[in-house]
Design brief:
Largest sheet: 9 strands, mixed
Number of strands: 9
Number of domains: 2
CATH class of the largest domain: Alpha Beta
Shape: globular
Length: 323
C-alpha cells in the first residue's frame, strides 16, 4: 500500500487571546481536512491557555498540545515545535492571522509537485503571498510582496543571507527539510529564515504568487510589515543614519551566517561558501571594504535604495558588534 501523506500545522502561541479563536476556526475550516495541529504555548499570561484548552476538548483528535513551558521567545518557541513535529509535511502558523480555506490544499499540491519532480528525499520549501490587513481584517493590500516591495523569487542563497523572502506563516516544509534544518540554532534570525537558507543550500524553494493568509497587522506583531513607500523610505533613512537598529540587524545576519557555515559549509558550493563567509566576517573587514565585498559576492538586498542603506550601515563604526 502507498504510504499516506501526513500534514501537521505547527502553531506557536503567546498572549494572543484577542485573535486566537479566529485563527483556530480558520484552520478547522480548511478544504483539506487531513491534518493535525501541534500547539506550543510560550507561557502566556492572558486567556490564551484557556482558549487552546477549549479547542483541544472539542477537537482532541485534531489538536495536540506540547504543554506549557518556560518562556522561550518567538524563535525559541518555534524551535521547540520544529523539534517535535513528525509529519511528512509541516506548515508553520502564527497565532494572529487567518488562513484562507484553500491554504493547505494549494500549498500541499505545490509541494507534491516539487517532490514528484525532485524526490521526497530532497529538502523543499513552498511559500505563498499574503493579504495584508489591519487589526479588524480589513484589507490594506492584496499582496504582501508588492506592499513590501519584495520579489520572493530572488531566493538564491547569496540573496537570502541578508533578507528573507519566505514568510514563515505561509510556508510548508517537507520532512527532508525540517530534519536537515533542526535544531534551529540560537544565532538564527527567525525559524523561517533558517529553513529558507537550509533549503537554498540543499534543495528547492518554490514561491506561489497567490495569497493564502490574511496577515493581520495590529501594532504588536512579533514580525510585521511596513509599506515600501516614500514615508517608509524616509523613516528607514533616519534609522540608518541616526540609530544603531539597522546595524544591529545586519550584525544578527552576520551571526546567523557564521552558524550556517558551522553547520553546512561542506554542503555549499564554492560561491555559496564565499558569500556566506563574507557576511559572517563582515565586521572584521575595513569599513571601506565591507559593501564592496558584499557586492562582489552578490550578498545584497533587493533594490537600489535598500542597498544604498546597506552601504551606509556597513560604512559606520561597529566595534561593539563584532563577535
Amino acid at each position: 500500500m502507498t504510504r499516506r501523506c501526513t500534514v501537521e500545522v505547527a502553531l506557536a502561541t503567546f498572549n494572543c487571546e484577542s485573535f486566537l479563536a479566529d485563527l483556530l476556526d480558520s484552520l478547522l475550516s480548511q478544504t483539506h481536512e487531513d491534518f493535525t495541529i501541534l500547539v506550543a504555548d510560550d507561557a502566556s499570561t492572558d486567556g490564551t491557555r484557556a482558549i487552546v484548552d477549549s479547542f483541544v476538548r472539542r477537537h482532541p483528535e485534531r489538536i495536540r498540545l506540547l504543554g506549557y513551558s518556560e518562556h522561550a521567545g518567538y524563535l525559541g518557541n518555534f524551535a521547540r515545535l520544529i523539534e517535535a513535529v513528525s509529519a511528512d509535511h509541516v506548515l508553520f502558523c502564527d497565532h494572529d492571522d487567518v488562513w484562507l480555506p484553500n491554504k493547505i490544499a494549494l500549498t500541499l499540491r505545490q509541494m507534491q509537485a516539487l517532490e514528484q519532480e525532485y524526490g521526497a528525499e530532497r529538502p523543499a520549501l513552498v511559500h505563498t503571498d499574503l493579504v495584508v490587513t489591519d487589526a479588524a481584517l480589513r484589507v490594506v493590500h492584496p499582496s504582501y510582496a508588492s506592499y513590501a516591495g519584495l520579489d520572493p523569487r530572488q531566493n538564491r542563497l547569496e540573496r537570502l543571507l541578508l533578507t528573507n523572502v519566505a514568510t514563515g506563516c505561509t510556508a510548508m516544509a517537507n520532512r527532508a527539510l525540517y530534519e536537515r534544518a533542526r535544531p534551529i540554532p540560537p544565532e538564527a534570525t527567525w525559524h523561517d529564515h533558517w529553513l529558507a537558507l537550509t533549503a537554498a543550500i540543499h534543495g528547492n524553494i518554490r514561491f506561489v504568487a497567490e495569497s493564502t493568509i490574511l496577515y493581520r497587522q495590529h501594532g504588536a506583531n512579533e514580525v510585521g510589515v511596513a509599506r515600501w513607500s516614500t514615508p517608509a523610505i524616509a523613516r528607514r533613512v533616519c534609522d540608518t543614519l541616526f540609530s544603531s537598529a539597522k546595524q544591529a540587524t545586519v550584525a544578527r545576519y552576520s551571526h546567523q551566517a557564521g552558524a550556517l557555515l558551522d553547520r553546512f559549509a561542506i554542503d555549499m558550493t564554492e560561491e555559496q561558501r564565499a558569500a556566506t563567509r563574507v557576511v559572517a566576517d563582515l565586521w572584521s573587514l575595513k569599513r571601506r571594504q565591507r559593501f564592496r565585498t558584499l557586492l562582489r559576492h552578490g550578498a545584497l538586498l533587493q533594490g537600489a535604495l535598500r542597498n544604498l542603506g546597506l552601504m551606509a550601515v556597513t560604512m559606520r563604526k561597529a566595534e561593539h558588534l563584532q563577535a
